[in-house]
Amino acid sequence: MSRRVYLDHNASTPVHPDVLAEMLPYFSERFGNPSSAHGFGREARAGLDLARERVGRFLHVAPDEIVFTSGGTESDNFGVKGLAFARGRGHLITSTIEHHAVLRACQWLESQGFAVTYVGVDEHGMVDPDEVKRAIRPDTIGISIMHANSEVGTIQPVAAIGAVARERGVPFHVDAVQTFGKIDLDVAAAHIDLLSFSGHKIYGPKGVAGLWIRKGVKIVSVQQGGEHERRRRAGTENLPGIVGLGKAVEVRARDMHGEAPRLTALRDRLWEGIQARVPDVRLNGHPTERLPGTANISFRGVESESVVLGLDLKGIGVSAGSACTTGTVEPSYVLVAMGAPLDWAMGAVRHSLGRTTTAEDIDYVIESVEPLVRKLRAALPVGAG
Fold this sequence. Notes:
By secondary structure, the chain is an alpha/beta fold. The chain folds into two domains: 5-12 and 256-378, Aspartate Aminotransferase, domain 1; 17-252, 3-Layer(aba) Sandwich (Aspartate Aminotransferase, domain 2). The chain has helices at 17-23, 39-59, 72-87, 100-111, 129-135, 158-168, 228-231, 239-277, 304-312, 333-337, 342-345, 359-378; strands at residues 5-6, 66-69, 91-95, 115-119, 140-144, 172-175, 194-198, 209-213, 281-284, 294-299, 316-317, 319-320, 322-325, 328-331, 348-352. The strands form four sheets. It has a seven-stranded mixed beta sheet, sandwiched between helices. A four-stranded antiparallel beta sheet has the order 9-10-15-12, covered by helices on one side. The chain is globular, with a radius of gyration of 22 Å. The model has no long low-confidence stretch (mean pLDDT 94).
C-alpha cells in the first residue's frame, strides 16, 4: 500500500499535536480530582476551569453554562430528555434525518408517554422552518433540529427555526456536533437554548463533549450521583479529555476561518473530478448550504460497501451511506428521507475532508474511484444497474 488517504473526518479526527501536548500532564503530574480541596485537586480544577472558559469564549456565552459530558450522544440525550422530563409530559418536534442520538432518544420518550412529530426534509435534506412552525402545538415543550447532517453535510436554517421557537416560547436544542469548530454559529442570534458539541470531530480526544444550556432554561439531570458540573451531570470529570477539548476549541477558533475555503475548494475538486470521469454519479445534499469538507456521492448501480472496501484496499478511508443489517444491505435513512431513489441511495459514499487533506490526496482518490466503479459495474448481472 503506497499511500494512505483519510477522508472520514465526519466520523472522527486525529488529535491535534497541540491538543495532545496540553493533555499529557493531566495523565501524570496533574492527576488530582477536581473536586478535592487540596492543592492537587485545585491544580486539576484550574485545568477544568480553563477549558470551560475557552469553550464559553468560543460560543460567546458564560462559562458556567457549559456542562461537560462523555460524548455527543450523551449531550443529545441530556438535551432532549432533560428538556422533556423538566416539563413532565408534552409534545416534541424533531426531524427525520437527525443523528440516532436524538432520534432514538425521542423514540424512547414516546414509549414514556411523550408525543413526537418528525418533520420531513426536501430533496437536499433541508428542513422547512414553516413546517416546524406548523407542527407546534399548545403542548409543545421542545424542538431539536441539527445544525448540519453528518452524512450529506446539509446546513439547516437553524436561525429561522430558532426565531419560530422563540416566537412561540418553545425551548430549542441544536445538535451542532458536525459544525462546532468548523463553521460560525451565533447561538444568541439563532435563538438557541441548548447546544450539543463534541471533541473528537475537531481534532480533540474521544470520550468528551459538552452541552451548552442557556441560563434560565429548565432542564433536569439524566444522570444521578455527586455534585459535579453544578449538579447537572454527576460523575468525576474526564479531566485530560476536557483539557484536550478546551485546547481543541482554542485551536479551531484560530484556524477554522482559514481552513473552510481551502476545504471547500478541495471538496469541489473531488466532486468535479469524479463527475468528469465516472458516469451516473450524483451529489447528495444541498449544492451550496453544505459543510466545507463533506461530499456525499452516489454511484448508481453499485453498493456503497463495495466502493468503501475497494478504496480501503488502495489505502483510502471513506464511509458508506448504507448499513448492513442482518446480512442485508439497507440504504441510508437520511437519503430515504430525502426521497433518493433506491438505486442511487444504495451507492452513496461519504467523503469528509480535514485539516491535513491535500490536493494530491484528492487526485489520488479520483484516480482510484474511476477504475473501481467501472470494475464493480462490469461485474453486475446483465440488465442490473
